[in-house]
Amino acid sequence: MSVPALEAQALCKSFGGVRAAVDVSFAVPARTLTAIIGPNGAGKTTLFNLITHLFAADSGEVRFFGASLAGLAPGEIAARGLIRTFQSARIFPGMTVLENALVGAHLQARAPALSQMLWLPSARREERELVARARSLLEMAGISGHARTAANELPIGAQKLLEIVRALMARPKVMLLDEPAAGLNDAETGELAALLRAVRASGVTVLVVEHNMSLVMGVADQVIVLDAGSIVASGTPAEIQRNPRVVEAYVGQDLL
Amino acid sequence: MEQAAQTIIGGILQGSVFAIVALGFTLVFRVTGAINLSQGAFCILGAFAMYSLEQTFGWPMAAAAAGAALATAVAGLAIGASTFVPALSRLPASSMFILTAGLLTFLEGLCLVVWGSEPYALPPFSGEAPVTVLGVRLPTQGLWIVGATLAIVAGIWWLLMRTTLGEALRACAENPAAARLMGIDVPRMTLFSFTLAAFIAAVGGIVVAPILSFQFDTGRFFTISGFSAVAIGGLGSFVGAAAGGELLGVAEQLAAGYISSLFANGIALGLLILTLLVRPSGLFTARRSRREDVRDEHRIYHPVVRLQGARGAAFGAAAVLLVLALPWLVPEGLLSSLVITGILFIAVLGLDVLMGYAGQVSLGQAGFMAVGGYTAAILATNHGWSPLVGTAAGIVLSLACALGLSLATMRLRGHYLALATLAFGLMVDSLTVGMTETTGGPSGLVGIPSFAIGSFAFDTALSMYYLVAALLVLLVLALLGAIRGSFGRALQAVRTDQTAAAALGVNVPRYKMAAFAISAVLASLSGSLYAFFFHFLSPEMVGTQRSLEMIAMLVVGGEGTLVGPVFGVALLTLLPTAFQPLAIYKTLAAGLLLVLTVRYLPGGIFGTLAGAAAARGAR
Fold it and tell me: Which residues pair with A96 in a beta bridge?
């Protein structure tokens, strides 16, 4: 068995009296798509914040392709190839859609600021290449028509897609997506599913928090169910749908 | 021993005033989440009103004091109702900060127009004879100051903790949205707190005026000291505000008494930076109000204005041609004003990188002009260095100052850089005034040679014009190159959302530091050229007044557009030259323009015009 792309080991976090993560351990195999589901307040976003060190965990650690991430700043974690999106699409307002996508390539841009100041051919060539890649990814996400629009003028669904494009521009090894389908209509959700399959097929490992069950059951290789900060079940989508504890947690909800 | 006691008592008296200003800051901050830089100006407004009522109109002391405090409160009410309160719900926190800097400039300008630039003093309330308490001689005014401070502290406590009104104010501080749902008129509460803060400041100004001399721009010292006191004591804590004020007052008096009065401002900066390094939340941490982190996530943005491709290139080419032809198009008398416009634009260009792109506010840009100007001028005039090498030396020194300041503040969010740069500017002010032997003191440094490269001296306005124009074209091109590329995108990402930027691998502190370094280098270069062009340099040419003016130039011209600020610089440089008798209105106009632009024209002159052009092109 090869080293998992991402591994959480006994993560714990409390906010005052609220235990947002209780001894959470799981592994995400490389080149797979793992989904985390669970009711609101189950600690899904907290888990992402712990993994990317936006919050410090009370105990436990995260391993990335076998190497511990302990002590790294969020920017350093991104530099290793672990890129996340946010629940409330955090696109950069005041910049165009294309520029937003290009910020994602920040770590790919090798030309130093000085060579940009001098308009050196190397810097301009790199810029052209990044722009070309950004355009093709925007095309893939179906929002290339808005490239020159102010990003904050996009509808929320398109902003979420833009955030995924921006993350892809970073050429991540592992992507963490926080509710990418929130705010998307059915057609857009279908496009998102296709996009996620394409991302996985290109070799990127994906960990996604999502409420949309048909999306999760349709694309995930592995599903982890979180409730009140603890993992209550995990397995393939088919196993999860048969798990009585999960069905109980989702009483009244149609898992299909 | 007795001298030490006297010094400490002097410190407590001075600290009481800082504490009063700090309490006003805290009151407004707790209710609105905004820092009101105009707080100190209300102290001076109160003192001036007192002077006019008592000395000019002959009112009795008590009536004059009451009248002055009320008049200042009414001024606060009018200013708050017309600018601060309506802006609060529409503007992001950093724009509110600039708006209050505009109010500070406006009030200073108003005092300059009404009362002139000479220093004023008031007689003590209860005569000159000191009283002796426990063997220590006290000026009677000291008792008034301490009494007023205690009364204000007790009054605020009673208001907030024991009245329904206070409960409503506290509700606004905790959660404005919920307060609104509970039927509290939040804008009215905001206006009330702003007015009350102005009243408190006026009382402080009135009781302290007899022990110091004050003039139109003394207010900013109260602002910086009160602001420092708040940062030292802990933003949002009333106890911290009072304690921070007293601590700062005593430390400054001890420094002035035992080291040198030159370093009193330095002590403020030192204490401040020490606090920021060791205990960034201040000595007394306020109960964490929800408001602050909500504000923190309030993402700031400008309308997107991009002149791209052929249109951008055509615009650039036309601009370069205009710059080349301009000396032949204007009357000869205006040429040196154009040179000054160009030189100041270099510094404002740096400020644009820092404020317009990286979203960091600096209130001390002229401090770096002073470092660059004095270093180059002193080396070239007194030590025979070549102007070019002197300029380079100034740049190195400015860079060192900038890196020091940013190391202390860059990891903190909010307005700490603004605070540190304001303190830095004031410290440079006091050094340039105080180190008379090296800098020439208040009367300035004379006999500075012309700028020269090798044996070629730029000793005419025309040669300086083309030197500055060439430098500007190169600088704008270089910055444009970086801003268009990954460097500029990272800066803008940091400006609008630091968390998301870091999650994409942007090293946030490093980019803030780079922007600050660029702005310091350009200010330093500008200061050196300024000194070489005038052949003269005095502290007020590169003082805090200038820093505030440059913010007005930047915002009026259009932040975040690189070329836009030139319109603001030209407006505020050429108009006073063209209408000399109106020069006294310059500060007033700068403040007013700044406030109006922040409030009604967020893109500035250039941003608005270019936005309209881009919209027309897109149609």
Answer: A150
Give the domain extent around A71. Answer: 14-92+155-249
What is chain B's Cα-based Rg? 24
| Angstroms from B474 CA to nearest CA on chain A | 10
Q: Does any CB of chain A come closer than 8 Å to the CB of residue B487?
A: yes
Q: What is the pLDDT of residue A40?
A: 80
Q: Do A92 and B508 touch (CB under 8 A)?
A: no
Name the residue in chain B with its Cα closest to that of A166.
Answer: B504
**DSSP type of residue A88:** S
State the SS3 of B478-499: HHHHHHHCHHHHHHHHHHHCHH
Separation between Cα atoms, residue B391 and residue B376, nearest integer Å: 5
Chain A residues inside the 8 Å CB shell of B487: 113, 116
Strands B536-537 and B445-446: antiparallel
What φ, ψ does residue B399 adopt, rounded to 5°? -60, -40
Residues from chain B that touch A51, judged by Cβ atoms under 8 A, are: none
Q: Select from A92, A116, A167 the Cβ nearest to the Cβ of B485.
A: A116
Q: Which of B149, B161, B97 is nearest to B413 (CA)?
A: B97
CA B423 from chain centre, in angstroms, equals 9
CB contact under 8 A, A99 and B492: yes
pLDDT in tens, B330-368: 888 889 999 999 999 999 999 999 998 988 888 899 999
Q: Examine residue A124 and state whether it is found in any structural domain, yes or no.
A: no
- Does B489 lie at the interface with A, CB-CB under 8 angstroms? yes
Q: How confident is the model at residue B290 (pLDDT cuts 50, 70, 90)?
A: very low
Residues in chain A: 256
Cβ atoms within 10 Å, residue B388: 15
Confidence tier at B302 by pLDDT (50, 70, 90):
low
Residue B296 banded pLDDT, cuts 50, 70, 90: very low
- Confidence bin at A163 (pLDDT 50/70/90): very high
Q: Is A106 left (phi over 0), alpha (psi -120 to 50) or beta?
A: alpha
Q: Would the CB atoms of A92 and B497 count as touching at under 8 Å?
A: yes
- A59-68, B121-130, B259-268, range with greatest mean pLDDT: A59-68
CB-CB neighbours of B562 under 10 Å: 21
CA neighbor of B368 nearest in space, from B474, B587, B527? B527
Domain count across chain A: 1
In a domain, residue A172? The reply is yes
Dist CA B563 CA B105 (whole Å): 24
Q: Which residue, chain included where needed, has tokens 């400041």?
A: B201
Percent of chain B surpassing pLDDT 70 = 93
How distant, in Å, are the alpha carbons of A36, A174, B375, B513 from that of A78? 21, 10, 43, 20
Nearest CB partner across the interface for A95, out of B304, B487, B499: B304
Proportion of chain B above pLDDT 90, given as a percent: 39
Tell me the pLDDT of chain B averaged across its residues.
86
Query: Which value does ipTM take for this structure?
Result: 0.89
User: Is the per-residue pLDDT at A254 higher than 60?
Assistant: no
Query: Is it true that domain B2-286 has CATH number 3.90.550?
Result: no
- Say if CB B173 and CB B30 are below 8 A apart: yes
Instruction: Give the torsion sign (CA, B14, B233, B272, B595).
Output: negative
Q: Answer yes or no: same fold for B2-286 and B330-618.
A: yes
User: Which CATH entry fits the domain spanning B330-618: 1.10.3470, 3.40.1000, 1.10.10, 3.30.479?
Assistant: 1.10.3470
CA–CA dist B149, B159 (Å, integer): 15
Q: Tokens in use for A98?
A: 């294309």
CATH assignment at residue A82: 3.40.50.300
Please indicate if any CB of chain A lies within 8 Å of the CB of B309.
no
Does position B412 have pLDDT exceeding 70, yes or no?
no
For the entire predicted model, the pTM comes to 0.88
A146: in domain = no
| Residue A205 belongs to a domain | yes
